[in-house]
Amino acid sequence: MVVLGLALAFALSGLRIDAWGALLPLFEWMETSWFGVIGQTWGAVFAVVEASHLVAMALLGGAILVSDGRLLGLLLRDVPVQTILSKTHRLFVIGLLVAIASGIFLACGVAMKLYYLPVYWFKMLALTAGVLFAFTIKRPLLADGVEDLNPWVVRAVAIASLMVWFTVAATGRWIGFSG
Amino acid sequence: MRLNPVGQAEQGRSAGYQPHEFRDAERAPFSTRIRRKPTVLNRLIYDCALWLDATAWSTLLHESYYMYSWVETTHVLSLILSLGMLFLIDLRMLGFALPQVPATTIAQRLQLPMFIGFGVMIITGLLLFYANPVRNAQSVWFRIKVLLLVGAAVNALVFNYRMKQSVAAWNHAPLAPPHIRSGALLSLMFWILIVICGRFIAYDWFDCSHGQTGIINLFAGCIDGQGQF
User: What's this model's pTM, rounded to 2 decimal places?
Assistant: First the structure.
């Protein structure tokens, strides 16, 4: 609730515009950094990192779909929930780290284009929401098992998780069509 | 004209092309002689692509900004579904994911969402090809991707056959036997390369409109004097 309140206060106040303005020097620096120069100079390197980003998203997506599919009772129903959650979490973290690392490289190559692209900021907001949701809500809530929880709460967590990560993937793809 | 993420123009249909002409083919460089004699298969592929290109739906799909973007987004999202499931199956065989869950449980239960993802991916992939058939049919990366897809399909059939033959002996083991692990590793490699080639299709490095070297012209199936790209 605290996180949600802070997010709403940030989104609805002038802080959002101030933060956006304050980030301009960072994006200008990103474009002139080594990653930025490599991304702009060697299209093949940029394309390979784009593919790595996609592969990482597939790993991340697989981990999310299996864990949330199990919470919804759609997948692997004869395997204990805790087994699925604990083992897919490691894949989720690996996928997330690779996606973020490759994403930073890609962002450096087209930093100024992204800075003025609304859909990029939607993606960043969705990504922040997804990461916060995964580590501050979903994981602590389900850490002691789902037996004592209301089944509708468990389903709501799974649906919220699927929706936020779907938004991350869809807005990410839409960046390619914009600008 | 579409722009790829680094702002390079993705090739459309109407780029200009002026092939080199040699009065004496015997004295022309080897690379040019290859280009002057397209193989029967390349000519057939080009003619089929031209026929597809002339259909109204192809033009509509290519020119529709939102429809094309939706199809491509669905292609990527279904790739996340199908490859996500495939990666978990392969990583289970390699001992990296859910090692305490029986191998058959993982393989059988994740097969349905994986096939749903593959189905949507194939349909949207065909639509993407149909939206710009001549350029895609003459893309080196598209051709490599098709070969890799055939390789991945053959590997999947061999993998399934071998798994059915031997799974009773190692179903509960955290690590599959070497012949199954090699199939899983090969599957991962095939799909990572397929994703890379799929991403490379958007770039115009080896497009016929750029006047490529002979070997690229042969492999891409460029036709001397062709008017469409």
Answer: 0.85
